[in-house]
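Known limitations

Files may contain more than one protein. Parsers should not assume a single record per file. Below, a two-record file is shown to illustrate correct handling: read the sequence, read the token line, then continue until end of file.
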Amino acid sequence: MKKTALITGASKGIGRELAILFAENQCNVVLVARSWAELEALKNQLETKFDISAYTIAKDLSLPNAPQEVFAELKKNRIDIDYLINNAGFGDYGAFVETKWERYDKMIALNISALTQLCHLFAHDWATQRKSGRILNLSSMAAFQPGPMMAVYFATKSFVLSLSEAIGNEFRKYGITVTALCPGPTSTNFGTESKMSASELMSNVKIASARDVAIVGYNAMMKGKAVVIEGRQNKLIPIAIRLLPRRLVTWISGKVMRRK
């Protein structure tokens, strides 16, 4: 019997590539994103090419009841989830005081609240019913330091990394693994939508492909790794950060994140 993966933010970028990876490996998928048309197009592509079943849920996960509604819909349709992929999220480039609160409110709701609630809903279900399951949470290299000009986004990704490591430790006794995927800048719509393309960072680093990041995350999750960093050079950054004073780390981050 085929297993099933739920992937949030599945219509574009890393989420889309993860959906394709699961389908390639003969895993059924539940695709969650805001755009119904894009989800249906991906569903048709995956079912036709890989002979798997794809179920779509068009939902804005930043809304308060959305995670519970997704969980309830799956229960109603008797769709059991084996892999939870919390990929949905967004960032915004700009000075903290110049950005509207509504933007941050939605960012925190999606990047933190929705992800945390989905982890809680499915892990509680798995722990009490089956003693197995795998979770992949999309964090970022942003998780390892403060990020002036993207202060809230960097902070949300720090939360994701910390949460993933903590609950991963708790869940071992239930046979559930939690993996935090920490990519650097990636070739997706994120740079444009977040306006991060205006920063010095995007001009001075190697941009990974969404496919490569998805493969790294998928393999790490299947091996039960706690944290995985995409890219050899990126793996050196957390080590360097630990050796430097926090004030200096923040200053360097601010220089890198400044506008071109």
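...continuing to the second record:
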Amino acid sequence: MTKDAIRAYWERFLSGLPEDSPYRVKHYETDGFGDSPEMADELGGLVRSGIKTATCSALWEWEVEGETLPEPGNVWIILDGAGKPMCIAETTEVTIRRYREVDADFAHAEGEGDRSLEYWRRAHRNFFTRLLPKIGKEFSEDMLLVCERFRVIHR
């Protein structure tokens, strides 16, 4: 998908808002979920349907990429596996916690599988075990995660 098409999606969102809406002056990011087009489609679909209201990533990823950590109020266009916009979300909370400190409430908000903490731990261990070696790191239950909650503001 081209940047022009993504910009057009953003403009369609803005067109339904009042002239004094704070979103008119906000910057947005674009991103998909996971490490494959299939995962982006699946997890993006959970967001779009309202099931997934949280996500997490390894703090190491942010450090390696030199990215600024998300903050409440950040807006992002969630992309599917083909890079097409699925919806727009706004970050409502960001916490840093160790993998082993993630609780059942956060696992449920992530919306994946049966939404249990056990499923979350298994799925995320597999994901981080697959992802982290690409940046020279290894999975650890003590590793720090950027845990983000969000709400969909446009479908």
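Parsers that stop after the first record will miss the second one. For reference, the second record is described as follows. Strands lie at 28-31, 54-58, 75-79, 85-98, 144-154.
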